[in-house]
């Protein structure tokens, strides 16, 4: 399916790309047609996710990687997901100041996007925005997540490689013993490696990797020290990322992993649409409105159970077992 914005994006029109990204995040009426036109560009670029606690230096690290990638001739796209204001829904941080060095580079496109309360450190439209950047010609897309700690797992379903950024003196030695975010990293980046405590954190991470045999998909997770402010270790970080992607490309389950990612994408779209429809039904459906607003003698759990029964009757196929 052709679309005028996509045709301009493919030709390198930055203004068309910016407009398309806004359509995707704002729920423009043209969004479905835009997505159909963008779909052929899905999974064309390598996507690297950078996650970790706030203050770990993710933005500085990404900024240095942009410079490194541009020297190698890559076209780079950056999505920096910022936390949203609970009052306006807008981004609290806006465009990343640390990445302003690349604002005049035609081979770099940087976009800050609000997560709008979406859990997991990601924006709801992230997958769609990646397709737009791919259509623009980006062959490397750096995805910086909000940085919400142990719950920041959505990046695992979007990025080809997840780089977990850790720093000394921020409780990371304790976090290293926990499940969750530590288990999604394909590459550990020990940033601020010149600060006190870096060596002890390195030993703690090495011990954890050794004791748990922390391998993901037969991949031994590397620990790469870096000092993002000076650029030290940046080339090694990218080499580790490339090595991981080369490793994954050789695995026999590539098609299965692609199908799992596609399934997660589809279900996330269905989930978002269902939430919106449920919100509208709470006021438009007379029975639901009555249950929620009138029958205050019923506990919220009871009301929720009755609403779920209504949903089951609408969704489940008619069989002798559930027809009653």
Automatic annotation (TrEMBL):
Lineage of source species: Bacteria, Bacillati, Bacillota, Bacilli, Bacillales
Cited InterPro entries: AAA+_ATPase, GTPase/Isobutyryl-CoA_mutase, GTPase_ArgK, P-loop_NTPase
Annotated protein name in UniProt: Methylmalonyl Co-A mutase-associated GTPase MeaB
Residue ranges constituting the AAA+ ATPase domain according to the UniProt record: 44-273
Family: Belongs to the SIMIBI class G3E GTPase family. ArgK/MeaB subfamily.
UniProt keywords, alphabetically: Chaperone, GTP-binding, Hydrolase, Nucleotide-binding
One Pfam family here: MeaB
């Amino acid at each position: 399916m052709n679309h005028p914005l996509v045709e301009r994006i493919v030709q390198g029109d930055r203004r068309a790309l910016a407009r398309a990204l806004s359509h995707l995040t704002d729920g423009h009426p043209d969004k479905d047609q835009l997505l159909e036109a963008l779909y052929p560009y899905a999974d064309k670029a390598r996507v690297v996710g950078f996650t970790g606690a706030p203050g770990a230096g993710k933005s500085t690290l990404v900024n240095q990687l942009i410079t490194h990638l541009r020297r190698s001739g890559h076209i780079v796209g950056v999505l920096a997901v910022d936390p949203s204001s609970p009052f306006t829904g807008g981004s609290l941080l806006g465009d990343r100041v640390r990445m302003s060095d690349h604002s005049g580079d035609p081979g770099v496109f940087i976009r800050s996007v609000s997560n709008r309360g979406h859990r997991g450190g990601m924006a709801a439209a992230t997958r769609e925005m990646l397709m737009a950047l791919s259509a623009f010609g980006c062959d490397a897309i750096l995805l910086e997540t909000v940085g919400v700690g142990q719950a920041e797992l959505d990046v695992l379903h979007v990025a080809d490689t997840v780089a977990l950024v850790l720093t000394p003196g921020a409780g990371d030695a304790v976090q290293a013993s926990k499940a969750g975010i530590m288990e999604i990293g394909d590459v550990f980046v020990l940033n601020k490696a010149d600060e006190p405590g870096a060596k002890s954190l390195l030993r703690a991470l090495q011990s954890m990797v050794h004791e748990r045999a922390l391998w993901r998909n037969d991949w031994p997770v590397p620990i790469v020290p870096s000092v993002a402010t000076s650029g030290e270790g940046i080339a090694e970080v990218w080499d580790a990322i490339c090595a991981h992607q080369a490793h994954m490309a050789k695995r026999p389950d590539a098609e299965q992993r692609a199908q799992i990612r596609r399934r997660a994408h589809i279900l996330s779209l269905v989930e978002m649409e269902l939430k919106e429809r449920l919100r509208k039904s709470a006021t438009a459906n007379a029975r639901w409105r009555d249950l929620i607003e009138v029958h205050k003698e019923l506990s919220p759990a009871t009301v929720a159970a009755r609403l779920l029964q209504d949903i089951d009757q609408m969704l489940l196929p008619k069989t002798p077992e559930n027809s009653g």
